[in-house]
Design brief:
α1 packs across α4 and α3 packs antiparallel against α4. The N terminus is likely disordered. This protein has nine helices and no strands. The protein starts with a helix and ends with a helix. It has about 210 residues and is mainly α. About 75% of the residues lie in helices and about 0% in strands. It folds into two domains: about 100 residues, Rna Polymerase Sigma Factor, Chain: A (Orthogonal Bundle); about 80 residues, Orthogonal Bundle (Arc Repressor Mutant, subunit A), CATH 1.10.10. The longest helix has 29 residues.
């Protein structure tokens, strides 16, 4: 679902390989903290794989609780794995289970916030009420994906102003301060961006 998705798939396969090797031996006598110490000392992801295996079901359950979607939950768990690999190399974590739980929960909150923002911009742009668009053939997730992808295709100025105004709820003056655009430019980019978004979404819907 992101540009890093291909890497995450490779990561997922690698972790599965770790898990398969883990199953051949019994590491239950090694504490979480010892596994982290071995991971940092040996620079061997096998030790981290053992740790992540212990809490994979917990993480999946947490993500399912908040996201209510199995595929989104699985993807979220992979995102947690990726963060664990990068962060646990740099920082000392005393309670890995609690740390992983918190990372998973916060990731889900961010996903839900982003989805809420997209629903908000969809409503503000009146996309669902627009006569040229027929959202009835699409579920909410598909509609939001269309909108998200369409925002990315706006030119830089329009994308910036639309994102700041609708998603980050910035005022005209705040957008002017952060971008250096004049008031006339800000209003123009927002208006043109809104119009182009509707056209992009309509185009994508007709191709689906």
């Amino acid at each position: 679902m992101h540009s890093s998705y291909g890497f995450l798939q490779i990561l997922h396969l690698s972790i599965n390989a770790y898990f398969n090797s883990v199953q051949k031996e019994n590491y239950t006598n090694i504490s979480d903290q010892e596994l982290l110490e071995k991971f940092k000392r040996d620079q061997d992801n096998l030790w981290l794989g053992i740790l992540l295996q212990r809490y994979t079901l917990l993480l999946l359950g947490v993500c399912m609780k908040y996201l209510k979607d199995e595929e989104l939950a699985k993807d979220a768990v992979q995102q947690v794995f990726l963060k664990a690999i990068t962060e646990l190399q740099k920082y000392s974590v005393e309670y890995p289970k609690s740390w992983l739980y918190t990372i998973a929960r916060n990731h889900c909150f961010m996903q839900l916030r982003d989805k809420t923002q997209l629903i908000s911009i969809s409503d503000k742009l009146n996309l669902r009420d627009d006569s040229i668009l027929d959202f009835t053939a699409f579920d909410k997730e598909q509609s939001l994906t269309l909108l998200e992808n369409s925002i990315k295709e706006l030119n830089t100025a329009q994308k910036t102003c639309v994102t700041l105004f609708y998603l980050q709820k910035k005022s005209y003056s705040e957008i002017m301060d952060s971008t250096g655009f004049s008031l006339l430019q800000v209003k123009s980019y927002i208006q043109n961006g809104k119009r182009n978004l509707k056209l992009l979404v309509a185009q994508k819907m007709s191709q689906s």
